[in-house]
TrEMBL record:
Gene3D superfamilies documented for this protein: Tetracycline Repressor, domain 2
Protein's recorded name: TetR/AcrR family transcriptional regulator
PROSITE patterns for the chain: HTH_TETR_2 (PS50977)
Biological source species: Diaphorobacter limosus
DNA-binding region: 39-58
Length: 223
């Protein structure tokens, strides 16, 4: 009788679903250590296959990184959508539009704090080009069919449609709002505000988003 032990059963993926298993492993690695932790060999180990098996689905580490980046952006979009959905019951359209706009910023900052590895990965794999919408970026969208930047643009358009923001002040507002909120996210993750507790971090997030909103909607200063 042979003393050879049977090979371990691969229980991490179903037949034909190896790409999803590898992507899930990549997302888990990003969640644990950010983009630098995404290693194709480790992803295959976690999926329970030999390294060469991965190349049928991801030709390189960069290819896996791009796929994880899209998944991270989609997770960020869903976090923003949850904040927006929470205020849709407000009866007054102007209040609802303003609350939805604030929800974009609050969802963005909450996700950065709760999922720092995925947040870093979302913006580290390659530049997030807001002008080019390639077909492969469909995976970067939430349930609404929009990615995080498009959700911001949609919320700003809602302010205009609701009569809150003059159309003349809409152009380029997405870049002003995004730069402020993303800057705060980086201060909380890697800057002098890192290590701040959840309550003071949330208070800062609410204050920043209120400042962005007030600045955007303020009357033009007299000449």
């Amino acid at each position: 009788m042979s003393d050879k032990k049977p090979s371990p059963t691969r229980s991490t993926f179903r037949h034909g679903d190896l790409r999803r298993a590898l992507l899930d492993a990549g997302v888990a690695l990003a969640r644990e250590g950010g983009p630098g932790a995404i290693v194709l060999r480790e992803a295959t180990r976690r999926a329970g296959v030999v390294p060469n098996a991965a190349y049928r689905h991801f030709e390189s580490r960069q290819a896996l990184l791009e796929a994880v980046r899209a998944a991270a952006l989609a997770a960020l979009a869903r976090a923003i959508e949850a904040e927006i959905d929470a205020v849709q019951q407000l009866p007054e359209p102007r209040r609802r539009a303003r609350a939805a706009f604030r929800g974009v910023g609050l969802g963005y900052l909450r996700f950065a704090r709760q999922e720092p590895g995925l947040f870093r990965t979302a913006f580290a794999a390659r530049p997030f080009d807001v002008h080019e919408r390639a077909a492969q970026d469909d995976a970067a969208r939430g349930a609404s069919g929009m990615d995080p930047f498009e959700l911001l643009c949609h919320a700003l358009d809602g302010l205009v449609q609701g009569g809150v923001l003059p159309a003349a002040r809409r152009q380029g507002a997405e870049f002003m709002a995004w730069s402020a909120v993303h800057g705060m996210a980086m201060l909380l993750l890697d800057g002098p505000l890192r290590g701040l507790g959840e309550a003071p971090s949330q208070a800062l997030a609410e204050r920043l988003v209120a400042m962005v909103e007030q600045g955007l909607l303020a009357e033009a200063a007299p000449q």
